[in-house]
Amino acid sequence: MERRLFNRRELPILLLMVLAAALWLVLSRTGPEGTRAIVERDGETILTKELGGLEAPELVEIVGKNGITLTLEFSREGARVLEASCPDKTCRREGLLTRAGESAVCLPGRIVLRLEGPRTGQNLDAETY
User: Fold this and answer.
1) Which of 17, 26, 79, 113 has its CB surrounded by the most CB atoms within 10 Å?
2) What is the pLDDT of residues 2-30, one digit of tens each?
3) Are 94 and 80 in contact (CB under 8 A)?
């Protein structure tokens, strides 16, 4: 007797599960409307960019403590540190930030790039970094 992986009655359920997984994957890859990038230097907000409204990528140069310079790129897909003059370049290795709550920190320059969205910063008990 031949044993099959699934029978014909299970096919619609299998297809529905595959479709739901594909839809979830597509929706989780796109940032929610209202996502904004916030740049802080020494704990003070110096720049806020609404990412959903950008037509083309924008480059911004920020000078931090000790003359350390960061080149930031903002686009509809997210934000990232493109170039950094600090010695370790950890902030640059974070790559493209695409979801609310993600951040890139340049400790020598005391600069923080973080994404904030509709679900972050509202009615939270605590926040960790």
Assistant:
1) 79
2) 777 777 888 888 899 999 999 887 766 55
3) yes
Q: What is the mean pLDDT of the chain?
A: 85
Query: What does the alpha-carbon distance between residue 62 and residue 75 come to, in Å, rounded to a whole number?
Result: 17
HSE, CB side, 13 Å, CA atoms: give it for residue 25.
6
* 98, 113 Cβ separation under 8 angstroms: no
Please give the structure tokens belonging to residue 29: 């890859």
β-pairing, 36-41 vs 44-50, is antiparallel
User: Amino acid letter at 72?
Assistant: L
**Per-residue pLDDT tens for 20-65?**
999 887 766 555 456 899 999 999 999 999 988 888 999 999 999 9
